[in-house]
Write a structure and sequence with these properties.
The chain is of the alpha/beta class and 306 residues long. It has one domain: 4-Layer Sandwich (Metallo-beta-lactamase, Chain A), CATH 3.60.15.10. The protein contains eight helices and 14 strands. The strands form three sheets. Strands 3-4-5-6-7-8-9 form a seven-stranded mixed sheet. It has a five-stranded mixed sheet with strand order 10-11-12-13-14. A hairpin with a 2-residue loop joins strand 3 and strand 4. Bound molecules: zinc ion.
Amino acid sequence: MKKCLQAVAASLALSCAVPAFADEAIKCSMCEEWNKPVAPFKVYGNTWYVGTAGLSALLVTGPQGHVLLDGALPQSAPLIRKNIEALGFRMEDIKLILNSHPHFDHAGAIAELQRASGATVVASPQAAQVLREGTPGTDDPQYDPKERFYIPKVAEVKEIADGKSVSVGPLRLTVHYTPGHTPGGTSWSWESCEQGKCASIVYADSLNPVSMDGFHYSGDATRPDLSASFRKSIARLAGLKCDVLVAAHPSFSDLFGKAAAKTADTNPFIDPEGCAKYAASASRSLEARLQRERDEKDRASPTAAR
Ligand SMILES: [Zn+2]
């Protein structure tokens, strides 16, 4: 049995999920494509791409341990591990695991990667609850009471307040709450340096306004209006100091195109407009979505008035 979720635009196509049992790989229309292996590569300085073809995972390395951001699908765990080890790093040196948002395609392997590394998982309070329980709550726009997104439960999750930082030795990463796509979604920023030049890296959460049928970002009789907080998340991302953008889906920031275009003299990962452009695209999607919701309500109102 399968339930497909409609994305607002083809480029933002998300997923079709089925529930799975603890040791099963999750099946979805995009999962096979997303989970194709790719060789790991340096993004900038001590920031490395260790994810799969369609789902980002980043490793930020330091002398006293490393930080891993995101865990893709449950079945991505061996691919991420292989990529980390291919770069010459050890799983047991990962001290922290962070997450963009707690959906099966970004948090699916976190439990396994935590077991393999002994790392501490850190998330916003709302995301932490989802990671502990293994399914999104009823406040998730993609919540489906019949076919919940399944995430292998994460045993221990530490909560972090908005704007605070986590550290491993000299590494310091700051959380920016970006609710909208999920209530607990977060983006992260840090600094990486190479050849004496330091760059602000931003790992951007998904900002696409997809939902189950019947959910209204503009609110309705049963739910609050989320449009202001979603717009705030988008503006927040646009305002971050951002020399290098990596999005939760690598295609959203043309990561592989940039990797292919990298030469000894040019580094296309450096794009100070990256976050602003990403935010502008998200803003267009959200405003189009809100307009559709207004149109729907307008169409429904004559009937309601009778
Ligand atoms: Zn998602």
